[in-house]
């Protein structure tokens, strides 16, 4: 991890194209190319260690290295671990969970595969349909790295991948915006059904984000999972041993073993009354930081470190959202004004519920 050691902490307000926004005894904030980022200050006896704060770390390591290099030039630096221009490129293939919240999508047809595994199905679809944007969701990081490499080797530019829980990622997607969703051979979890992707809340989100005429396709080799899914999905078409153009290596093996493959295809026929969702408001009232804790109905809100920058400015860390995939955010209290530092939380239902609780708890303390 890039870092520097320095004898002093006397930083100017501006270093070339970098602005030092505020500085306290343990942390300081910089703005570079319009992006905010925190850097930690660790007292090491007769010198200080400066490194990037992990929860606000910039997406490009090269930018962190650039900022530290500029800071190093104006301080009495004793040691530094900075290697400029060492960025590993993944282009625009890997996206963050807030992709749909923060980006204008230029494609009119968007399709999603949940748990793409080796990527054979996703890569083939994208290669044969260059005008369609394909989003791959996968929690297994090596699969993410493998498909990024294949996209670069095969010059495929209409795939985006995200390393996140699909059940939460779907909450960030605009209603009536997706054309097709694939869920092929999910882990059945027959002995722990609460861990399944295909649960009631997931089906509600699938139905909300699909366009009218859009479809959801489940493909599984597990009969128990298939029967349970029929009850959840309801109005759908079912197949056994349907032939498709693109199969996974596991499906090829199961077919050689003459194992049955089950399909459910649900097609959305109409818009439901509750599908339109208002824009999420992540604002705060004027207030001051306090220690907070809330845990109920799978939602957590917990304050962590509170940094005092000066008598008027505080920075409070908070864990918030679903207990299954909570976010760590910082809240900046600046002379009574309050906002999320760097960026809003991911615009999911869980985070909005957590934010509403957080805002109420802060107000109760003031």
Structural descriptors:
single chain; alpha+beta; Rossmann fold; 7-stranded antiparallel beta sheet; 9 helices; 19 strands; 25% helix; globular
In the CATH scheme, the class of the largest domain would be: Alpha Beta
Q: Can you tell me the CATH topology of the largest domain?
A: Rossmann fold
Count of beta strands: 19
Write the CATH homologous superfamily of the largest domain: Vaccinia Virus protein VP39
Residue share in helices? 10-25%
The arrangement of helices and strands along the chain is EEEEEEHEHEHEHEHEHEHEHEEEEEEH
Number of helices: 9
Written account of the structure:
With 366 residues, the chain is of the alpha+beta class. Helix content is 25%, strand content 31%. The strands form three sheets. The protein has a seven-stranded antiparallel beta sheet, covered by helices on one side. A seven-stranded mixed beta sheet has the order 10-9-8-11-12-14-13, with helices on both faces. The longest helix has 16 residues, at 349-364.
Briefly characterize the structure.
The protein has 366 residues and is α+β, with helices and mostly antiparallel strands. Helices cover 25% and strands 31% of the residues.
What is the element layout, followed by pairings?
Elements lengths: L2 E4 L7 E2 L2 E6 L3 E6 L2 E9 L4 E5 L8 H14 L2 E5 L17 H4 L7 E5 L5 H9 L4 E5 L3 H14 L4 E4 L3 H4 L8 E7 L15 H10 E11 L2 H11 L3 E4 L8 H8 L5 E6 L25 E4 L2 E10 L4 E10 L4 E8 L2 E4 L8 H16 L2
Parallel strand pairs: 8-9, 8-11, 9-10, 11-12
Antiparallel strand pairs: 1-6, 1-7, 2-3, 3-4, 4-5, 5-6, 12-14, 13-14, 15-16, 16-17, 17-18, 18-19
